[in-house]
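Final report, Chapter 2: Outcomes

The project's central promise was a pipeline that accepts a single protein chain and returns its three-dimensional structure in a standardized token representation, suitable for archiving and comparison. That pipeline is now operational. To close this chapter, we reproduce one record exactly as it appears in the project archive, with the input sequence first and the structure output second.
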Amino acid sequence: MNNNLVENFLDFLQNDKKLSDNTLQSYNRDIKLYGSYLDSHNLNALNCSEDSLKEYFDELRVEGKADSTISRNIASLRSFYQYLYKNKVVTEDPTTHLESPKITRKPPKILSTEQVELLLNQPKCVDLKGYRDKAMLELVYATGIRVTELISLNIDDIDLENGSIKTSTRGKERIIPIGSLANSALSDYLTKARKSMLKDDNDDALFVNVNGKRLTRQGFWKIIKQYKNQADIDVDITPHTLRHSFAMHLLENGAELRDIQEMLGHSDISSTQVYAQMEQDRIKTMYMKSHPRA
């Protein structure tokens, strides 16, 4: 695989398509995996046929790759070859007639309000880490922000006086209100912990790790897992679980779908409608169980 072609493609995705770092890393992994396959079979990406691509995806299936993984790989290579074709690096796009496997989309996992309460009560404000973790968990559930948005927050993105935060994804900025509990937890963290945790007083990162550097995605995932186990909650919890729970609990309590879409930063309402469908399914199940003539 020609590394320059891959680097140029990734630059295009970053600068022209404005894709996030996580998405870029995903493209990079998928194309590198494909490149390793080509090298091991003495194939060239520039004259690879549709049949060769199908054989590659068949090999991924034999290796036990999930349909969702294969579908993502097809999407990555389709984008790659479309880029090569438009830039006249190849004369034909071998991905034109490739079909992605049909994937049954699982509904997102939602925590009950009791489970959320239990999780958020785990951090104890008896040390610097406790203040930080309490503020982070409260903030994620209060706003529904993505983990990438959380760790990217700077001190100037917080407006405690007006009870809101500012975040930006793919250049689109949004202001999200925060509740009193998250506001209080943030205030405590800022006044009692953050300055002591910082390694560099000029660092503008809102949340930092024990080394005084900006917290990473992996760091926050570990924090979630720690408190999930500590609370003895018997369901898997990821940062996105809190985001889903935020949206669902708002909907259950009367929030408008468009407002939830705006707070989540969904560009398409269809991404938000999954929560409405889940609520309808829940109501239908309740009706079938409870109505005497159902």
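Archive annotation: The mean pLDDT is 90.
This record, like all others produced under the grant, will remain available to the consortium after the project formally closes.
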